[in-house]
Structure formats: structure tokens, C-alpha cells
């Protein structure tokens, strides 16, 4: 049970009595007391009464004696709550014996499809795919831990007209050579070379066009060449996932091609539902409410004028598969914000067609861009988009160097392990600690700093606690009596009891900066506690209790970082 929930459950019946119906007490952390409820202010207008009166009456009805040391009305009508030490002690003791750190398994498990990463075959992964991969993987980890059935889908761009020129280029190079170039991760130069020929050479263009037709017609040899391209790219993407330490595997690839044989059915059914309209030779749906800059209704093109299907039709088929065949009720799409309108229209059309009906719902988890130090889109010195692996390798190299500078005696293996955990952790954390919708600047100094809201700071806090236990020569006793002797211990207890509330909030919002912010607050609260409260030198009973608090902090940091996809190390 977390504190916010407990207090909320106590206030809710009192508010209901006063308001004559259910009210969310809006309990949250407060700098003035431990917690504060603002609900009386919102109710004042509805009930036509002064908010302070409402708050007073709520406090007369609420049963709080066993959990609060003080409950009072303040300011314009806030209810301030100070939790009783006895209640804190009881709850921390329960937390210490709980493997899940107070976070319950969900009572309403769902099938959730997380569509993330989704790079394009024979094209380099760029930093946008980095954000999708990192955010999507955090969503997978969190929802899975809460007990949902999570289906990862890597909606690979493996289909469409570019494959004509890619296959022809492959034929020109020879299979062996092409395979080698692709497996080395030289995806961009392969793509550029194909594109170059396509733009310059009419004969090549013609071959490419015929090749697309052969691919779509299921020509055996063409399919074989296409498979080669896809497999080499997949193999390369898997090495990036491995370096990035994400949970995606080869089984999670389900590219656009997987829906090819359903596209005609999608368009037919939309037609049967009377949703299709012809526009310039294309078959379109005009979902209500979408208009362009000129005020004209916007089409979602499901069949192009050349008869081909494209990206929108594929997404409709994929969505229908996810709700219809997989039985998913929550669909998440972790894709950059430039595709916001695309998804809004796809969801609207799927809704109109009856493929997306409550309780099933779809959410586009959009995100902003990663910027360079100059505040513009991150680019390499040559002005090209930055190669993801290069970025990751640089992070690991920098972090390894920092670890060795701090402790020149480290053996190479340990330095490499720390470098990897810290370097990759720093990249992921910088991403997840920022509000998802915003852009952020990739700033090496800041994200690798041991101070501030960074992965290294949290990893260091964790390793410092572990070193206390090494020196203690023993683990914490989870059944040790909890003693809250001073304000620093008390503050730490309140913070530890907040983990479940933040996890519940992120389960709904999938805004991981709330979890990151919580972990950072926990680590700073621990550090204040550690400065003021000696652990190993304290008298026996206090020492046991402080070890228990330290251990709970370490476990919470570790679990929280794990949910973000970030490793902890025992020493750094
Ligand atoms: N391959 C696309 C890109 O690189 C992203 C696909 C996202 N997922 C989807 N279901 N449309 O932009």
C-alpha cells in the first residue's frame, strides 16, 4: 500500500459525504506537510460554499487518527496531512519484506501491444529510432512487471517501392559482397548507392520498377533477394539492440510486409462500410475533423492512384490485426511527433470502421527531437544524420575513460563493465528523464556527470549503498525493527513509500520523467540522510534500522533503474 493511496482512501468517503457524490481527493506530496489535498478548492464553486468550510467539514468526517499526526486546513482551503511516525514505521516494515517494494501486480491485466524501434531495412538507424527504442523498451519493462501481457512489435520498414532499386543494386553488387557490406552496418552507403543509380540511370529505374512488380507478385527469386536484404539488416539491428541493452529480439520483428496480404481486404471492407471516396484516382477516407491549412478536409490515402497500398493502409491492417487477432486492448505507438497526424487519422478511421472499439484504445506516444550543442537537429560534422552505433560507442568509451580516471587501479574487465552500464545508462536516462514531448540537447558533460539528475548519479548512489554493506560485512535484516529517530530518516521513509504511486502514474501516462524524477529525489533524500545519520557507527538497534532503510533505498533505485532499462553496478 502506498501512502498517497492510503490517505486518498481515507479522505474520499469524507469528501463524498460533504459533496453528496464521489470526489477524487487529489492527494499529493507537499512541501508544507507530508501531503496535501486540493479537492475542496475545486468543489467550492460547485457547492457554492467557501473552500475552507468544505475542508473543515471533510476533516470532521475523515477517519485519520491512526495514520496522521496532524490534519489541518491551510491557506484558501488546502487540507494538510502529516503522517504519524507509527504509521510510517508499520508501512516501511511491510515494504522491507516485500519483493515488489509495495507495487502490486495489476488487478486488471490487459494485452498491450507496444510498437517501437521500427527502423527501415537497408537504412541506418538514426537518433529518432534511438528515442523510440529507449522509450518503448521502458514501457515494455514497466507494463510487463505490472503483470500485463505485453506484445513487442518491431514494425520494420521492409516493404514498398524502394525495394525495387535496393534489390537491383544488390544484384549489381553480387550477393556475397552486398551481404558483407550490410552486415558491417554500412547501411547508408548501400542505400545511397542504390538511390544514386536510380536517380541517374533510366535503365536502372526501369529494372527497379519491374523488380517491384515481381516482388509484389511473389516471384520466387526476387523474394529470395529481398529476404537477404531484410535478414542482413535485422542481424545488424540486433547487434545495436544488444549494445543498447533492450529486450527486443529477433522474434519481435513484424515488418510492414507481414500485412501485405491483408491490405486489399482492408480497403474492400472500408468500401463496404461506405467510408471510401475517390480523390485524384486514389481511394481515400476523410475522417471528420481533419482539415488542412487551406481548410479542406484531409484524406487518408489507402490505395494510391497507381493501385499500390502504402504506409496508412499498412497501419490500418496492423491495427486491425492487433485488436482483432491478438486481442489487445491497449495499443501503444512509440513514434516521433512528426507522425502525430498520421496516427490520429489512422485511429479515427479504425474507430469508424469498428476495428478500434472500447475498451480497446490506441495511444501515440510521440516524442521530440535530439538536438546538437548548437540547438539544431543532431547532425554529424559532414551534415549527415548521426549514426546510432557511433553515438553508443562514444558513450561507452567516454564512461570507461571517466571510470579509469576516477580509479586508475581498475582492471580492464571491470572498467569495461562500468563503462558500458554508465555510458548506455547515461544515454537512456538523458532521454527518459526529459518530458517525452520536448526536444533535448545531447550534452555529454551533463549526461555523464556524477551530479544532478543523471544516470551516473543514481548508479553511484546505488554503488555507495552497496559499499556500506560490504563494509558492514552483512546484509540488512528485513525484519529488523524500524526506528525513525530524526527528520532525515523520516523524510527517507516517506520517499520510499512513494514508489508505488509513481509507478501507478507512469503505468497510465507512460511519462517516464516522473519515475526518473522520483528516483533522483530518492537518491538526494538518501544522501541527506547518509550525511546526518551514521550507519555503521550507530548503536545496535538504530544501526539495524538504518541498514534496513539503506537496503530499501538500494533495492528501489535498482528496480526503478531496471524499469528504465538501466543497469546498476556494485562498485564504480
Ligand atoms: N519505419 C517508420 C519510420 O522509420 C516507423 C514505423 C512506426 N510504426 C508504425 N506502426 N507506423 O519512420
UniProtKB/TrEMBL annotation:
Gene3D superfamilies the UniProt entry points to: Arginyl tRNA synthetase N-terminal domain, HUPs, Isoleucyl-tRNA Synthetase, Domain 1
Catalytic activity: tRNA(Arg) + L-arginine + ATP = L-arginyl-tRNA(Arg) + AMP + diphosphate
A GO term from the CC aspect: cytoplasm
Motif 'HIGH' region, chain ranges: 119-129
BP term (GO), one: arginyl-tRNA aminoacylation
Leading EC class: ligase
SUPFAM superfamilies the UniProt entry points to: Anticodon-binding domain of a subclass of class I aminoacyl-tRNA synthetases, Arginyl-tRNA synthetase (ArgRS), N-terminal 'additional' domain, Nucleotidylyl transferase
Domain Arginyl tRNA synthetase N-terminal: 1-83
Enzyme nomenclature, EC number: 6.1.1.19
Gene Ontology terms for molecular function: arginine-tRNA ligase activity; ATP binding
Keywords: Aminoacyl-tRNA synthetase, ATP-binding, Cytoplasm, Ligase, Nucleotide-binding, Protein biosynthesis
SMART domains xref list: Arg_tRNA_synt_N, DALR_1
InterPro entries: aa-tRNA-synth_I_CS (IPR001412), Arg-tRNA-ligase (IPR001278), Arg-tRNA-synth_N (IPR005148), Arg-tRNA-synth_N_sf (IPR036695), ArgRS_core (IPR035684), DALR_anticod-bd (IPR008909), Rossmann-like_a/b/a_fold (IPR014729), tRNAsynth_Ia_anticodon-bd (IPR009080)
Cited Pfam families: Arg_tRNA_synt_N, DALR_1, tRNA-synt_1d
DALR anticodon binding domain: residues covered: 458-572
Cell location: Cytoplasm
Entry similarity comment: Belongs to the class-I aminoacyl-tRNA synthetase family.
Subunit text: Monomer.
Protein name per the record: Arginine--tRNA ligase
Organism listed in the record: Micromonospora halophytica
Gene from which the chain derives: argS
